[in-house]
Amino acid sequence: MHFTSPKEKIFSVEISPLWQQQKLREFCKSKNIVVTAYSPLGAKGTRRGTHEVLDNETLKEIANAHNKTVAQVCLRWALEQGLSFVVKSFNKERMRENLHIFDWGLSLDDYKKINEIKQRRLLPKLEMVSPNGPFKSLEELWDGEI
């Protein structure tokens, strides 16, 4: 956790259009905690990542309608949610694309479609589950709430 002032706290959690964590974000807002979206694009191509965000058909449809990439749609969504986010890329073209999220916005119809995406954790943290550890199953680790 990083403290920027005595009244404001910042921490990062897994958030994307596929795992929106609305309850957690509402709680953090009520406590003046700034949330940073971790893996907002799913970390495709990494050992721990997933392709499900960038390959999501609903997000592709929205991206095509705006002549944008799925990554740009996801980052614009996070920006409009008031989230900070960190995107990791070594590809210069993708880094340039990621900057082109400020001159357009998502429509109410886009939000309706995004909110209909089935929600599920993409990075379940299986390495924290062990028969000999404090968490014996994913159900013990994640309670389904905040």
From TrEMBL:
Superkingdom classification of source: Eukaryota
Any Pfam family the entry gives: Aldo_ket_red
Domain NADP-dependent oxidoreductase as annotated: residue spans: 12-117
GO MF annotation, one: oxidoreductase activity
PROSITE patterns in the cross-refs: ALDOKETO_REDUCTASE_3
Annotated coiled-coil segments of the chain: none
Protein's recorded name: NADP-dependent oxidoreductase domain-containing protein
Species assigned in the record: Gossypium arboreum
